[in-house]
Amino acid sequence: MFRPTRWTRFIPLALAAVLAAGAASQVQAAPPPDRKAAAEQAGELIQLLRVKTPAEADRKRLAALDLDLAESAGPGYTDVVAYGNSDRRLLQLAGFTWSTLEDDLVGADRDREKADAAYAQAVRNKTVAVALPSGRTAYRQLADYDNDLGSLSQQYPTKAKLFTLKEKSLEGRTIRGLEITHNVGTSDGKPVFLMVGLHHAREWPSGELTIEFAYDLLKNDGTDTRITNILEKSRVIVVPVVNPDGFSLSRSLGYELKRKNCRVTNGQIPTAGQCAQSSYRSRGVDLNRNYSGFWGGPGASSSLTSETYRGASAFSEPESRNIQALVSQYQVTTLITNHTYSNLVLREPGYAGAPITPDESIHKALGDQMAAQNGYTSQFSYQLYDTTGVTEDWSYYATGGLGFTFEHGTNSFHPAFSTVVNMYPGNRAAYLLAAESTINPARHSIITGAAPAGAVLRLKKSFTTKTWNGTQLPDTLDTTMTVPAGGTYTWHTNPSTRPAVVQQGGTESWTLTCERPAGQVQETRPITVARGATATANLTC
Questions:
Q1: Where are the beta strands (DSSP E) in 235-342?
Q2: What are the structural domain ranges in the chain?
Q3: Distance in angstroms (rounded) separating the CA atoms of residues 326 and 192
Q4: How far is C-alpha 170 from the geometric centre of its chain's CA atoms?
Q5: CA 120-258-238 angle, 5° bins
Q6: CB 198 within 8 A of CB 144
Q7: Cα separation, 100 vs 88, whole angstroms
Q8: pTM
Q9: Is 104 in contact with 24 (CB distance < 8 Å)?
Q10: Domain 192-256+284-440 identical in fold to domain 445-536
Q11: Could you read off the pLDDT of 80-126 as tens digits, one per residue?
Q12: 8 A C-beta contact, residue 98 and residue 49
């Protein structure tokens, strides 16, 4: 007898019910059955539940069940995706009660498709105005992202540079980003604002908002004074799709709730098409639990089929290593990683037992300012629920650059596209504030001085990052700039001392080297510089 399992989530369940009835002649003769009724009868209806968690202990008990926790929680509740009766029975046996936010997520997604088609038609009929900078009226496919990034780099060759991240995805896809600034090909020492999307495949708005901001900057440079100032004084980097394999499966292969990447077996590259097979769809690593900062701690699972599976080791996945390499290559003074859903602006620390960061005052100030623009709530990450191994767990503690997670929207990982359109104005205002914070010298450090024109300056620091179990993992930050023709330079950097060392009352130094373009080191010196401070280093090389 054919019966869909928990992980054959988007095989049409109506077809499954008909197959269970028997003969092929009956399949041909039977009228189209009701999909939802068939799913309900089979006990496989996928629902979004709001589970009552009145106390922190309840939230921890719920997390221990290894269910699919949506990125949404608030006072007294946590949202959960329940894949059929087995998940609901597990909740019931654990003593939880809930209300139902969406009784049929598959049906809701079909309704979303209809709403998207109606919205696109309304734009074509000019009954609704085009509202996004790109003019999009529907969610992008993976190829659309690549095409749009390439098109922007060609349309604005002095302001936008297409680049390829260090490693291909597990399924062999190239991952791309875009650098945006005035005179983009010049090595200039500007502070960097990095924004990324689609760590989680099903969170489609996270990629849309990221790439729309790139369009906005390039289209409005020269007419919007804030944007012109941002591109004159900073470098903005966008990576809309961190997880292309998972996104391709979620967006185009009929498995909309795919969250993780395509790691089917630890340490092995998946075979062609393996990730899309129904028996393997639950596999994969949650890339936003795979970074080394506190890797292996609360809010991340050791189970390969869990939606928060942290991976076999920190940075086991090429997709998370890509962001590690990118942050290590640039002086990223501000980072935003976009997600859905819960209308939150989250800041460090990620788990409740961690000490408040030494930069809490500026972290909170910027988070509150951004939340005032998009109408979200600004809070500590752990107030959503405990997480470890997330992007800013590593980036903040490794570099001192301010890091935030934005959780966009309510009650849906990928709502109707018109909702994304409505999200953009408030988030645009928040992103502009983040970019302006990036160029604020009080929120990073500056190294300045004289050096021979054309010399290559390198800032490097090697250290170890501590995981939850105490393992010390090697880490390196290594960035360069070229001295301008005038023979003086100004380099906007992150502080030389990492936050954890600041908390312990210690200091660290950058190693500054002056090199010939071919790489021969001519001069080396340590540079210690705090946040908001300027250090002077005159180099003869």
A1: 235-239, 332-340
A2: 13-107, 192-256+284-440, 445-536
A3: 11
A4: 18
A5: 65
A6: no
A7: 11
A8: 0.92
A9: no
A10: no
A11: 999 999 999 999 999 999 999 999 999 999 999 999 999 999 999 99
A12: yes
